[in-house]
Specification:
Radius of gyration: 23 Å
Shape: elongated
Oligomer: single chain
Number of helices: 8
Order of helices and strands: EHEEEEHEHEEEHHEEEHHEEEEEEH
Number of strands: 18
Distance between the termini: 33 Å
Strand order of the largest sheet: 1-3-2-6-7-8-9
Largest sheet: 7 strands, mixed, barrel
Length: 383
C-alpha cells in the first residue's frame, strides 16, 4: 500500500470551500463532502456544501442543521448514487493546522457508531498577514482516515480535478427547496491565488508503514447519515463545557481519554510500568508530534531525514540520519507531565556508538533540543 493517499477534488468544490471560508474571518464555517471511493480506496469529492438553515457558529465551534443535511444526503444518494464521505470546516485564524482533539473524537465516535472506517476531512486555514487581503490565502489541507475508529491517518495530498464537478452541474437543473439551494450555492469569482494546497502527515501507526513514519519537512454506499455530523467542529480548549447537553452514551464516550482502546505502538508488557521513572503517558501522540517534536526537528534542514517510531504510551523514538550517510542518531523522547523531554540519546554507525550525556551525570531528562543538536554535530563529524 502506498504511503500517500490522494484526495481528488473538483476545482469547483475547492472554490466553494475557499469562498465560504473567506466570508467568515472570525467564525468557523463548514459543510459536508459527497463523493465516491476508488478501487484503491482513495476518495473523489464531487460536491462540497455550505451551511444553511439553523446554523450555530462561534469562533471555535459550529453545528449544521439536520433539516438541511438529511435531504441533501437523500438527494445526492437517491438521485446520483453519491454518498456522504466526510466534511470540511475552517479554523480561520486560530492557527490550528490539524483537526483538534474535539474534531478527532467526533470522527472516532461517528466511525464506531456506523462502522465506517474510511473518512475524509478538509481543513481550511487562513495564511498570510491578517488584515492584508492581498497577502491572505486559504490553505486547504486534506486528512484521510484509513481507520477512523482508531484515528489512523495516511499521508495525504489533494489532486485537483479541473473545472466544474459534473454533480454540481447536474444539480443546477434540479428543483430544490430554498435552504438546500443555499447549501448548494456556487462560489463567486475568486481572486487569483485565493487558495493553496497543503499535504497532511499520517499517524505513526498507519498500516503499511510498519509502525514507522517518515517526517517530511515542510467503501460502500452507506447507511451512516450525514446528519450525525451536524456538529461539525468543536475546537475549544478541552476543559471548556460543551454548548449542548450530550446523551448519556456520548457522555460516556467523551469521558474516555483521547485514543482510548487503541495503541499507537508496540503493546506494553503486562505489569510493566513506564519505560522511564519520570515519564507520564503521552496524552495525544499527534499533538505531541506536531507541537513539540516537529518544531525542533524542522530546523535541521533538507540534508537530514527524520523518522518517528512510537514506543508504547510513554515514549517516541526520534531517529535522525544524514542523507547518504551510514550513521544515525536515536533519541528516546517522552512526556514528563508538562513538556516534551529526552531521556536517552545515542549516535551509532557500523563500528561504534557514542551515548549522551557527556559528563552530565545525575540528570534524568533533557530538553529535546539538547541531545538533538549534540547528536547532529556527531553525525556531521562521522559523515
Amino acid at each position: 500500500m502506498s504511503e500517500h493517499y490522494i484526495v481528488r477534488v473538483f476545482e469547483s468544490e475547492l472554490d466553494l470551500i475557499t469562498h465560504e471560508t473567506l466570508g467568515h474571518q472570525e467564525l468557523e464555517t463548514g459543510g459536508n463532502l459527497f463523493g465516491l471511493f476508488s478501487h484503491g480506496g482513495g476518495p473523489t469529492v464531487f460536491l462540497a456544501t455550505r451551511p444553511a438553515g439553523d446554523v450555530h457558529k462561534t469562533a471555535t465551534s459550529m453545528s449544521l442543521d439536520p433539516e438541511v443535511t438529511r435531504p441533501l444526503e437523500e438527494l445526492a444518494w437517491g438521485r446520483f448514487g453519491v454518498q456522504f464521505i466526510g466534511m470540511w470546516h475552517s479554523h480561520h485564524w486560530i492557527g490550528l493546522m490539524e483537526p483538534s482533539s474535539g474534531d478527532r473524537e467526533r470522527t472516532r465516535r461517528y466511525a464506531e457508531r456506523h462502522h465506517r472506517p474510511q473518512y475524509t476531512e478538509i481543513l481550511a486555514n487562513f495564511v498570510g498577514t491578517r488584515g492584508d487581503r492581498k497577502s491572505t490565502a486559504v490553505q486547504l489541507t486534506p486528512f484521510w482516515y484509513l481507520d477512523a475508529r482508531q484515528l489512523t491517518r495516511a499521508e495525504t495530498v489533494i489532486q485537483v480535478l479541473p473545472g466544474m464537478s459534473p454533480l454540481r452541474r447536474a444539480l443546477g437543473d434540479v428543483k430544490v427547496e430554498p435552504l438546500l439551494r443555499e447549501a448548494l450555492r456556487p462560489p463567486e469569482r475568486l481572486p487569483e491565488n485565493a487558495y493553496r494546497l497543503a499535504a497532511s502527515r499520517g499517524t505513526p501507526s498507519s498500516p503499511g508503514l510498519s509502525g514507522w513514519r517518515r517526517f517530511l519537512p515542510g467503501q460502500h454506499a452507506g447507511d451512516a447519515p450525514a446528519e450525525d455530523f451536524d456538529e461539525v467542529a468543536d475546537d475549544r480548549p478541552e476543559d471548556t463545557p460543551p454548548p449542548e447537553e450530550k446523551t448519556p452514551d456520548e457522555q460516556d464516550k467523551a469521558s474516555e481519554p483521547e485514543g482510548a482502546g487503541k495503541q499507537d505502538g508496540p503493546a506494553e508488557q503486562d505489569g510493566a510500568g513506564p519505560a522511564h521513572p519520570t515519564l507520564r503517558p503521552i496524552p495525544d501522540l499527534t499533538e505531541y508530534i506536531v507541537n513539540h517534536v516537529e518544531p525542533v526537528t524542522r530546523r535541521l534542514g533538507g540534508k537530514f531525514e527524520v523518522e518517528l517510531q512510537p514506543g508504547g504510551r510513554d515514549e517516541l523514538f526520534v531517529i535522525v540520519s544524514l542523507k547518504g550517510g551510514h550513521a544515525r542518531l536515536m533519541i528516546r523522547a517522552g512526556w514528563d507531565g508538562d513538556r516534551a523531554v529526552a531521556t536517552q540519546c545515542r549516535v551509532e554507525d557500523r563500528r561504534s556508538y557514542l551515548d549522551w550525556p557527556p559528563g552530565q551525570g545525575g540528570r534524568l531528562t533533557f530538553e529535546l533540543g539538547e541531545p538533538l543538536y549534540w547528536g547532529i554535530r556527531q553525525l556531521e563529524r562521522l559523515y
